[in-house]
Amino acid sequence: MTTKRVPEAYARLGVKPVINAQSWVTALGGSLMRPEVLRAMDEAATAFVDMTDLNLAAGKVVARACGAEAGLVTAGASASETIAIAACMTGTDEAKVEQLPNTAGMKDQVLIFKGERNRYDMAFEVPGARLVEWGMLGGAKPYQLEAAITDKTVAIATVFGPFIRRGLPLPELCEIAHKHGVPVVVDAAAEVPPMENLTKFIKQGADLVLFSGGKGIGGPQNTGLLAGRKDLIDAGIVNSLNLHSPRAGIARGMKVSKESLVGLVTALELFLESDEQSMLAGWTKKSTYLQSRLKGIPGLRVVIEGPDPNRHGPQPVLYFESGYQGPKPAEIRKRLLEKDPPIHVGGGGVRDEINVVMVNVQDGEEVIIADRLLEIIKGAKPAR
Ligand SMILES: *Cc1c(COP(=O)(O)O)cnc(C)c1O
């Protein structure tokens, strides 16, 4: 078997590359940047620029991509969450910007539907705001949201992601929020591709929308996007780019380097030009390959699922049903990590199924994954 060369930069540190069949997860490095992105970053590293000018120019590209009035490059979707809420709290009032994270005298509660709570949402609270849950898991009702809005409500946050129990449909949520003069912030960090999602949430009424730059867009892992209403983006800029003010602002620790700014813009432009159908076809091909290799194992049902709200891209999902005699899913996961290169698969979702996410699986790695799965499940030797 041909083994892939270990990049020298990792080898020197004694850190092993892994196969990422888990998706655009931060824990495994997000995504891989295309050579054009890396070249642009290299070039950016050879000259100084006025960082305000560069940020404003990059923000315009984000705005265009998202069909929004204005945009901003951030240090990741989490940074976007923080800057979005800071913007809603302070507007462009410099005194308020300098006061954060002390929110005395400001509206500082962010409503979020109970089912949309997630592992990243503390980022909304970083500027000093507090999340307040509304609704019931059994189903969101408009009157529940109406009742939850108070004179302390600064924004309504809403989240799209795998296995999130969504509250109200976005257009309905926005209608109620806007009736009360409250902005809606959409966390759609991992919702692209499809490309159309870049503009969808703004079209449906969101005041601000945020995405990761280092997931499906393929930019530097430490970048993100924030786009939406011009007054709110202006306020976000004061909270993050007031480079000459007496106090640096709540987002100082979330600055984006000139190289990353240029990298994100380049990745975003390449993403917009990319052929989505051929990208999907590539993931489908790897999926059907794995499905065919795993055929005929009693009790193992392999279904190709997605793209849908729960599964990024077409991907084979392994369901273990009655009659299955092989090792348990948890044991399979453990053993996938034991050899070199370790193989990380998806987190499952519904029950104890194993999903093999193809979006970051490099050409040829699907063969290694199939060999290893067969070896673990059937005790079979690799085919080659
Ligand atoms: C990944 C993710 C984030 C965090 O994104 P970063 O760009 O890594 O900061 C936030 N929210 C959701 C729903 C995510 O999937």
Task: Give the topology string: H per helix, E per strand.
Answer: HEHHEHHEEHEHEHEEHHHEEHEEH
Which outline best applies? globular
- Helicity level: 25-40%
| Architecture per CATH nomenclature, i.e. the level-2 architecture of the largest domain | 3-Layer(aba) Sandwich
Q: Can you tell me the CATH class of the largest domain?
A: Alpha Beta
The description of the largest β-sheet is: 7 strands, mixed
Topology-level CATH name of the largest domain: Aspartate Aminotransferase, domain 2
How would you describe the overall organization of this protein?
- By secondary structure, the protein is of the alpha/beta class.
- It folds into two domains: 8-29 and 275-378, Aspartate Aminotransferase, domain 1 (Alpha-Beta Complex), CATH 3.90.1150; 35-273, Type I PLP-dependent aspartate aminotransferase-like (Major domain) (Aspartate Aminotransferase, domain 2, 3-Layer(aba) Sandwich).
- Helix content is 37%, strand content 15%.
- The chain has 13 helices and twelve strands.
- It has a seven-stranded mixed β-sheet, with helices on both faces. It has a three-stranded antiparallel β-sheet with strand order 9-10-12.
- It is globular and about 70 Å long.
- It starts with 7 loop residues before the first helix and ends in a 6-residue tail after the last helix.
- The structure holds pyridoxal-5'-phosphate.
- Residues 26, 76-78, 118, 120, 159, 161, 187, 189-190, 212, 224 line the site of pyridoxal-5'-phosphate.
- Pyridoxal-5'-phosphate binds at residues 26, 76-78, 118, 120, 159, 161, 187, 189-190, 212, 224.
